[in-house]
Amino acid sequence: MTRRTLLAGALAPVSRAFAGASAIRLEIGNYGMQSLPVDGALAAIREIGYDGAELCCMPEWPSEPGKLDTAARRRIREFGLPIPSLIEAFNLMAPDAVLANVPDRIRAAAALAHDIAPSKPPLLQTVLGGKQGEFETIRDTMARRLGEWARVAGESGIRLAVKAHASNACDTPDKLNWLLDKVHHPALTAIYDYGHFQLAGLGIAESMDALLPRSAFITVKDSKLVNGKPQFLLPGDGSIDYTRYFAKVKDLKWSGWVLVEVTRQLQTQPGYNGIEAARRSYANLAPVLKRAGLR
User: Fold this and answer.
1) Alpha-carbon torsion angle 41, 161, 111, 153, nearest 10
2) With contact defined as beta carbons under 8 Å apart, do 219 and 261 qualify?
3) What CATH number is attached to the domain comprising 209?
4) Phi-psi region of 228 (alpha: psi -120 to 50; beta: other; left: phi over 0)
5) What is the pTM of this model?
6) What is the Rg, in whole angstroms, of the alpha carbon atoms belonging to the chain?
């Protein structure tokens, strides 16, 4: 990417879609674009038509906070594309030596959040870990540790968003609601990701009614079981009826960011192309949102 291209992007309108009022704003992250430099990923995301971008703070990604110096953070800020969220991958049931590093990683993500969007720092999202089927025996430990993470996030001036995951101990809306209620911290919020609830046989309406009203944002992807194991797909490439999905979102009068997640399962397949995955996901979702009157 040339300096001229970068400057042109910074001076351009924030996004073709973002320029108009809309109830739903689409974002995608560089989680699925690990091989691209941050500047290149942001340029591609805006060119496709997304309203915002998520940055991956995990080790081995180019947007890991320790790899972004002052100049890089300034470029992200001046590029003009909203960054509503950052992503990490923490595990509440990790060994003590790993857990000891989590508060510093939250603080590092928070510092990045404030540097790239001082007026509205992005939230930090993570899964919760643990093994499927053991929630009842470990939920108090999970709540205690999650409360500490929420405290660190709050003291750092950001929100921490967590989600239920089909392969984790917390895998349903009811379990996630239990943790949210137990921790009861203003910096802690939820993510609604139906791709995981679909695998549990839950319907769109029942899972949205249970969790969407207290969710800061939505993550979209499709899913199916293959030989009893979860397999995740791009949104629109599976069996989820997104017309009915977003009609329910509209009925609940929910508005905010919808994040396209490109699963690691797809990223590791031969011939995978992160930009093409982003294009396909946008092409699958944008017309549905337009027909629903949400864009």
Assistant:
1) -170
2) yes
3) 3.20.20.150
4) left
5) 0.91
6) 18
38 neighbors 76 (Cβ within 8 angstroms): yes
Are 106 and 89 spatial neighbours (Cβ–Cβ below 8 Å)? no
Task: Let me know if residue 4 belongs to a domain.
Answer: no
Residue 3 in any domain: the answer is no
Structural domain of 116:
22-291
**13 part of a folded domain:** no
Strand 229-233, strand 222-226: pairing: antiparallel
The amino acid present at 189, given as its one-letter code, is T
Token digits of residue 258: 């919808």
Q: What share of the chain is helix, strand, coil (3-state, %, to 5)?
A: 45, 15, 40
Nearest partner of 193 among 163, 223, 167, 169, judged by Cα: 163
Domain tally, the chain: 1
CA angle 83, 88, 91 (to 5 degrees): 155
CB-count exposure of residue 146 (10 Å: 0-12, 13-18, 19+): buried
pLDDT tens string, the chain, 295 residues long: the values are 333 333 333 333 333 333 344 589 999 999 999 999 999 999 999 999 999 999 999 999 999 999 999 999 999 999 999 999 999 999 999 999 999 999 999 999 999 999 999 999 999 999 999 999 999 999 999 999 999 999 999 999 999 999 999 999 999 999 999 999 999 999 999 999 999 999 999 999 999 999 999 999 999 999 998 888 889 999 999 999 999 999 999 999 999 999 999 999 999 999 999 999 999 999 999 999 999 999 8
- Reduce the secondary structure of 1-54 to three states and give it as a string: CCHHHHHHHHHCCCCCCCCCCCCEEEEEEHHHCCCCCHHHHHHHHHHHCCCEEE
Residues in the chain: 295
DSSP assignment of 240-284 equals --HHHHHHHHHHTT--EEEEE---HHHHTSTT--HHHHHHHHHHH
In a domain, 252, yes or no: yes
